Amino acid sequence: MSEPILEVRDLRVSVTGKPEIEIVHGVDLTVNRGEVHALMGPNGSGKSTLANAIAGNPSYTVDSGSIIFAGADITEERPDERARRGLFLSFQYPTTIPGVTMVNFLRAALSARRGEDVPAREFLGQLRETLATLKIDEDFARRYVNDGFSGGEKKRAEILQLGMLRPELAILDETDSGLDVDALRTVAEGINALRTPKIGLLIITHYQRILNYITPDVVHVMVHGKIVRSGGPELAKQIEENGYDPILQELGIGEEVAVS
Q: What is the pTM of this model?
């Protein structure tokens, strides 16, 4: 039997400082090691809010429920504590850091993940191995973090971070956003290259297209802050063909939602 890496139990999340604005309404979600889960839904359905709450973003408050990671309750932990445990979140809009090379950034991040300085020789060996696995040129790692990067390069930089940090759970928030077909394929191939039986993946997306390259074990549909349907890869294909309207109509709710 697979071991759960993430268990979200009856989670309710609001905007910090505005408890009356509840965005996530009692979500239950379990991701096992080695599994790929896709979380889909219309704009403003609460997908990114759920991801940020799991990662500990202080802009959101967990009003009730719990987040269990690798058997430990992390609901009250800081984001850095969760990251050191092995939780990774990629961003929709990665930050640019002029003057800081990818090499220096990655070594600092890896040292923080381990809680101790990583020897230069060991770090460089791991970096070269990861770059080779992801088919990324070594010159890429000498550039400043996201400075002048195209959309595809920013997403590749995040996948490189994923490969170096080797987390136990990776939440990829709209990694396919704004990518053309070639860039999407390249990023997806990188994700597939890093899949192992030990890592859990939660891919958040509006569209089925990235799932043409990364086959999920489970697909969830989130609407109005709730997971309203779960199924296999065929559920994503149904959404691609018919949109979300049939699900919304079946649930008897309108299309408009106000938050993300």
A: 0.91
